[in-house]
């Protein structure tokens, strides 16, 4: 994990503050509306370019983990997200939808980094990425419409168009670039050059999108600063509950150590970049929804970093039978 990735939450927070300052003291903030979606589309293309569908076969080696992961991510988590939003954000419909968009989208990128740091099974973790991406593409509009109710105030067609724009467009572009790279330069060049460049672009583009969005919506953020703080309790509860639940389920199923780690990371990490893109595209006139999705990673990333270190520390002292060896975790 590079130092840039370790400090991602700090960079995102700095971009948000810089954008807020630009939007409040200069007229340049209005330019942000033309930057947000293009930056997110390019960023997601870079994320998807690093995905390798060849890992999907790994799921056969851990059907129990995969099944539990799907249940936790697509049944338990939406129910928990709805309960947290209804219970703690009942009079804040935009923040409630933002929370929902964040929590019902399992991560398809950086959870791999934290899985590797905690010595989880990275092969199975990589195999879950395309599965989660496909399920998000299908289920996200359904979750928003069913769980947000009248608060969503958006029709199914508009939401589906936003999901297709922000998920399908970069996915197709990434697949096309991967195919072209292999045909023109070979698979080794794609892995060593194209994928590395793609990985370096993700965080700068995310920060650019966050800066542009906060510059564009600076007056709205300034007027609703106290309301935004209401997101902290439900996010804190979520990121405490999910690791405990996933770890408990993994122990009940007697999953091997690396698989326990993978399940914890795959069910705790959320997909804020994709959710942010969908929020901007589907709710352009409701900026608080998108702002909520920037607050999420500021809590999530430090939690994942600490969680990976705790798991790794405990693994050194409590694993048996070679579960924590590097060969079994790959």
Keywords:
single chain; globular; Na+/H+ antiporter like fold; mainly alpha; disordered C terminus; 330 residues
Protein architecture, described:
Helix content is 77%, strand content 0%. With 330 residues, it is mostly helical. The chain is globular, with a radius of gyration of 19 Å. Mean pLDDT is 80; it is low at 319-330.
The biggest sheet, with number of strands, parallel, antiparallel or mixed sense and barrel status, is: none
Describe the global form.
globular
Please state the CA-atom Rg, rounded to the nearest Å: 19 Å
CATH topology: Na+/H+ antiporter like fold
Give the integer mean of the pLDDT values. Answer: 80
Structural class, judged by helices and strands? mainly alpha
DSSP strand count: 0
Strand content: under 5%
Rounded to the nearest angstrom, the distance between the terminal CA atoms is 16 Å
- In the CATH hierarchy, the architecture is Up-down Bundle
Poorly predicted tracts of residues: 319-330
The residue fraction in helices comes out at: over 70%
- If helices are DSSP runs of H or I spanning 4 or more residues, what is the number of helices? 15
Write the element-wise H/E pattern from the N-terminal end onward. HHHHHHHHHHHHHHH
Count up the domains: 1
CATH class: Mainly Alpha
Main location: membrane
Organism: Garicola koreensis
Keywords: Cell membrane, Membrane, Transmembrane, Transmembrane helix, Transport
Membrane topology: Multi-pass membrane protein
């Amino acid at each position: 994990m590079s130092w840039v990735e370790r400090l991602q939450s700090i960079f995102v927070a700095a971009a948000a503050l810089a954008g807020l300052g630009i939007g409040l003291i200069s007229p340049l903030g209005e330019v942000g509306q033309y930057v947000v979606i293009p930056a997110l589309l390019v960023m997601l293309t870079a994320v998807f370019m690093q995905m390798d569908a060849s890992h999907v076969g790994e799921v056969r080696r851990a059907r129990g983990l995969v099944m539990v992961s799907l249940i936790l991510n697509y049944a338990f988590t939406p129910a928990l997200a709805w309960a947290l939003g209804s219970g703690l954000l009942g009079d804040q419909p935009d923040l409630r939808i933002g929370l929902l968009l964040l929590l019902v989208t399992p991560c398809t990128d950086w959870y791999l980094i934290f899985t590797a740091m905690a010595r989880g099974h990275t092969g199975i973790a990589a195999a879950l990425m395309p599965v989660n991406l496909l399920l998000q593409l299908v289920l996200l509009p359904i979750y928003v419409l069913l769980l947000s109710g009248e608060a969503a105030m958006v029709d199914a067609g508009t939401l589906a168009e936003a999901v297709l724009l922000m998920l399908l467009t970069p996915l197709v572009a990434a697949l096309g670039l991967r195919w072209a790279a292999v045909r023109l330069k070979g698979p080794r060049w794609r892995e060593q050059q194209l994928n590395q460049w793609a990985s370096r672009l993700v965080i700068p583009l995310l920060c650019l999108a966050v800066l542009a969005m906060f510059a564009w919506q600076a007056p709205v953020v300034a007027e609703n600063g106290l309301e935004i703080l209401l997101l902290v309790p439900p996010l804190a509860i979520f990121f405490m509950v999910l690791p405990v639940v996933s770890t408990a389920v993994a122990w009940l199923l007697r999953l091997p150590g690396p698989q326990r780690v993978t399940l914890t990371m795959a069910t705790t990490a959320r997909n804020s970049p994709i959710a942010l893109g969908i929020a901007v595209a589907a709710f352009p006139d409701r900026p608080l929804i998108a702002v909520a999705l920037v607050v999420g990673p500021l809590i999530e990333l430090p939690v994942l970093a600490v969680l990976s270190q705790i798991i790794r520390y405990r693994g050194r002292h409590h694993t048996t039978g070679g579960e924590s060896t590097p060969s079994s975790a790959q």
